[in-house]
Design goal:
Elements (H helix, E strand, L loop, with lengths): L1 E15 L4 E3 L4 E2 L3 E18 L6 E4 L2 E2 L2 H18 L5 E8 L8 H16 L6 H9 L13 E4 L12 E5 L6 E5 L10 H11 L3 H20 L3 H20 L10 H15 L4 E5 L5 E5 L4 H8 L8 E4 L6 E2 L8
Helix pairs in contact: 2-3, 5-6
The structure holds adenosine-5'-diphosphate (ADP) and ligand DP6.
Length: 332
C-alpha cells in the first residue's frame, strides 16, 4: 500500500534572529525570534509512504542523497511515524527553488514542506501549531515557515517541546517587501548549526545577545502592530548586526561576510540617505536582504542595479504559509 503527501513551503527571513539552542536535541531556542515569509523562494516536497521499501530514500533536486543526508530525513520522519504508530519507509522527492545552504533559509522551507507532506501522507491531521513544533525538530528556522506574513517563534518553556512553536503575528498585507542581494549563492563552509553552538560556547557577548534579542522582539511587535515601517526597519537592522557582532566575538571568530556584503550594506545606507526607507539584514551567509516598502521596490531595485548585476537582485513579496499540492500541481 502507498500513501502520498505533497506540500509547498516558503522560506522566511528572520528580522529578530534565532542564534543558539538551549536544548540541542529538541531544537529549543535561547530566545524567541520573528520573521517575514517570502514568496520568491520555496521548496516543494513529495512523500510516498511505501510498504515495499526497506529503507527511506531521499532525492534532492533529482539527485539521490547519501547516507548522512538521508539519516537526517529518517530521524525527522520518525517523529511522525512514532506519532502515527507506523514503521513504513518513505521515498522523498524535494525540489528547492532557493539556493541550498547559502544563508537563504533552504532548511526552513525544506523541513516545513517535509512536515506538511508527511502530515498528509500519514493522515495524522496535526494542526499548524503542532506541525510547527515538528518542523522545528528538522531545523529551527523551519518552525516559522509553516505560516505566512510576520511570524513569531515563541521560545516556549523549559524543556517542554510542545510550548515552542510559531504563530502568525500579522499577515503583512500592507506596504512590505524584501529584496535579496545575492552576493554568493555557493554552499557555506560553516553550517548555522555548528556556528551557533560555537558562539554559545565561546562568545563573551552571548548573554547580552539573548537579553537584547528579547527586548527587540517586544519592540518590533509593537512596530508591526502600529505599521510603523521605520521602527520595524531600524530594529531589524540593529538586531541582525548584533547577531553578527556576537559571532565575531566567538573563538575562533565567525564571519559569513564577503567584501560584496559590505558593498551591498553601504549601498543600502546610501539609498536610505536619499530618503527611501530601506534596511539590511544578513543570516549565516554573505547574501544581504533589504527590508523595504513594496511601493518602493522598483526604485530601490533600479538604484541597486547601478552597482550589482540584474541576476544578483531578487525582489520578493510576502509569502504565505504551507500549502498542500494536488497531483496536477506537482509539475516535476
Ligand atoms: P540555509 O541557509 O540554506 O538554511 P543551512 O546550513 O541552515 O543553510 O541548511 C542547509 C541544509 O538543509 C542542507 O545542507 C540540507 O541538509 C538541508 N536541506 C536543504 N534543502 C533541503 C530539502 N529540500 N530537503 C531536505 N533537507 C534540505
Ligand atoms: C541566522 O534554522 O538553519 O538564519 O536549527 O540548527 O537547523 P538549525 O539552524 P537554522 O539557523 C538559522 C539561523 C539564522 C537566523 C534565523 O533564521 O533566525
Amino acid at each position: 500500500m502507498k500513501s502520498v503527501g505533497r506540500c509547498r513551503a516558503h522560506t522566511n527571513i528572520a528580522l529578530i534572529k534565532y542564534w543558539g539552542k538551549r536544548n540541542d536535541e529538541l531544537f529549543l531556542p535561547m530566545n524567541s525570534s520573528l520573521s517575514l515569509t517570502l514568496d520568491a523562494f520555496y521548496t516543494d516536497t513529495q512523500v510516498i509512504l511505501d510498504e515495499s521499501l526497506v529503507s527511506d530514500v531521499f532525492y534532492l533536486d533529482d539527485v539521490k542523497q547519501g547516507e548522512k543526508e538521508t539519516e537526517k530525513i529518517t530521524n525527522f520522519l520518525n517523529l511522525f511515524r512514532n506519532r502515527a504508530n507506523i514503521e513504513t519507509k518513505a521515498c522523498i522527492k524535494s525540489y528547492n527553488h532557493v539556493p541550498t545552504a547559502a544563508g537563504l533559509a533552504s532548511s526552513a522551507s525544506a523541513f516545513s514542506a517535509l512536515a506538511g507532506a508527511m502530515n498528509q501522507a500519514t493522515n495524522l491531521n496535526l494542526d499548524l501549531e503542532t506541525l510547527s513544533t515538528f518542523a522545528r525538530q528538522g531545523s529551527g528556522s523551519a518552525t516559522r515557515s509553516i505560516y505566512g506574513g510576520f511570524v513569531e517563534w515563541d521560545m516556549g518553556e523549559a524543556d517542554l517541546s510542545e510550548t515552542s512553536h510559531a504563530v502568525q503575528v500579522d499577515d503583512a498585507s500592507w506596504d512590505i517587501g524584501m529584496i535579496v542581494i545575492a552576493v554568493n549563492t555557493g554552499k557555506k563552509k560553516l553550517s548555522s548549526r555548528v556556528g551557533m553552538k560555537q558562539t554559545i560556547a565561546t562568545s563573551p557577548f552571548y548573554s547580552s545577545w539573548v537579553e537584547t534579542a528579547t527586548k527587540d522582539i517586544k519592540n518590533i511587535k509593537k512596530a508591526i502592530k502600529s505599521k510603523d515601517f521605520v521602527t520595524l526597519g531600524e530594529i531589524t537592522e540593529s538586531n541582525g548586526m548584533k547577531m553578527h557582532a556576537t559571532m565575531l566575538g566567538a573563538m575562533p571568530p565567525i564571519s559569513y561576510w564577503e567584501p560584496d556584503s559590505v558593498k551591498a550594506i553601504q549601498k543600502v545606507k546610501e539609498i536610505r540617505d536619499t530618503g527611501l526607507p530601506c534596511y539590511v539584514t544578513m543570516d549565516a551567509g554573505p547574501n544581504v536582504k533589504v527590508l523595504c516598502k513594496k511601493s518602493d521596490m522598483t526604485e530601490i531595485e533600479n538604484r541597486l542595479l547601478e552597482d550589482f548585476d540584474r541576476k544578483q537582485i531578487i525582489p520578493s513579496h510576502v509569502g504565505e504559509g504551507i500549502t498542500l499540492l494536488s497531483e496536477d500541481e506537482w509539475n516535476y
